[in-house]
Amino acid sequence: MSFREKFAEASQRNGSLLCIGLDPDAERIAGGDAAAFLTAIIETTSDLVCAYKPNLAFYEQRGEAGYKLLRTVLNAIPEHIPLLADAKRGDVGHTAQAYANAIYDEWGFDAVTVNPYLGGDSVEPFVARPDKGVFIVCRTSNPGARDLQDLTVDAPSGRAPLYEAVARLAKAWNTRDNVGLVAGATYPAELAHLREICPEMLFLVPGVGAQAGDLTSAVRAGLDADAGGILVNASRSVLYASQGTDFAEAARAEALAIRDAIERERGAVRAQSPT
Amino acid sequence: MSFREKFAEASQRNGSLLCIGLDPDAERIAGGDAAAFLTAIIETTSDLVCAYKPNLAFYEQRGEAGYKLLRTVLNAIPEHIPLLADAKRGDVGHTAQAYANAIYDEWGFDAVTVNPYLGGDSVEPFVARPDKGVFIVCRTSNPGARDLQDLTVDAPSGRAPLYEAVARLAKAWNTRDNVGLVAGATYPAELAHLREICPEMLFLVPGVGAQAGDLTSAVRAGLDADAGGILVNASRSVLYASQGTDFAEAARAEALAIRDAIERERGAVRAQSPT
Lengths: 275, 275
What we know:
Two copies of one chain form a homodimer. The first copy, chain A, is an alpha/beta fold. Chain A has one domain: TIM Barrel, CATH 3.20.20. Chain A contains twelve helices and ten strands. In chain A, the strands form two sheets. Chain A has an eight-stranded parallel sheet with strand order 2-1-10-9-8-5-4-3. A two-stranded antiparallel ribbon of chain A has the order 6-7. In chain A, α2 runs parallel beside α12 (247-272) and α10 (215-222) crosses α12. The longest helix of chain A has 26 residues, at 247-272. In chain A, 58% of the residues are buried. The mean pLDDT of chain A is 95. β6 (152-155) of chain A pairs antiparallel with β6 (152-155) of chain B.
């Protein structure tokens, strides 16, 4: 089964476009036991998500213990939920191949985020696997995104902001129907523009919750013609909804609220669409 | 001691601007024991280098064994030789901080390569440490480099190729004298142009050897006004100089040849300079 199929099944089963980022912050974990914390979050939210997305940085900073923690987390996720590695790797071809081996084969992820700055041959080892999903980092949700991504460039595809040139490159790289984009929720106008350029790609949309994106406008901007095609990611707003012993119930309540808000927006979009 | 000082001391002690990339390729390691292989390479070359540069991808693809292998490799490197992590990380601020924690504190690296695509706040956690060195990926040595890096952009710093805009951003980010650039040896004209823009930065110059850059022209293009300021990286051409049991001696011979070729070029440049 391809990542896209696995995502579609999980999304339909849970009625959800919510992806939860599993990014353990030692200072914010109730009780301090990250494995117990994340396992409990997964148990209380796995019927509400279309995917889970561990960001590898939060495991790598824990050294060998982080290595074991990530294995525990991945093992705790039900098999039908897609595993998305937020890794943002990007390196020359033979090194990119080694990263792809690590993420796909050593860890068993179904999909990965990849940085486009090194160009086509740096992306190829990731997209060469038709069973896996590759989200090209396009327009991110942080303030510094404008330093490079918003610069106007003269690309072969035309004069446009760099992030748009990246979206058009991603389209060109998408010969196996497994390429998507990372496009932040904090910039709905850019998100809507990217949806025009890439009507059929999956978009990973971070920046909901702790990064203060407007959920409703982001969802409306990102949805494809079938009122789907996005993975709306929330991390800290779900994980740290409560710093008390009720963290897992609080995480479920927050996940449910986001999932349902997305579903309401999808319903509104469907109701407006010509049939 | 800052990375820059540690680099200067090791470079002077060994009369060398050669950095060896420690990238274990399972298929090319004589005998198959990567720890023994890399330890032997370090033993026979540590008087010839200014730094060692493990690329994390080659360890990550080995899973838990790779984790232990990297620890073994770092422990085998003499304390006076700088440790440069080729990681090319790039993520939003709080995630970049986690990567910086991993690379600087968990692993103990002195310097790191960082991808600029996410902009200033993604770079800040790395450059915030004045004792560490940060090489911003600017112009890489792979064919796909032209997909983004060579696009003409309208940047606040002027109309120029994107890689040049990145170099000017790196200058702006260099408030602690700890920022350098990654600039591939395969494009000496670009390297010379970057040296004009950033006369005092350290440049990490990959692409010598297996990536077929012309060593002499790259060195001449990259040297600063004091005939220094570059770390010329060779990986595969040194590590796999021989596939036989003489691999360590062959690696030493290749490292010596590259180091001495660089030194000859430095001597020639010094002889031409006005005193």
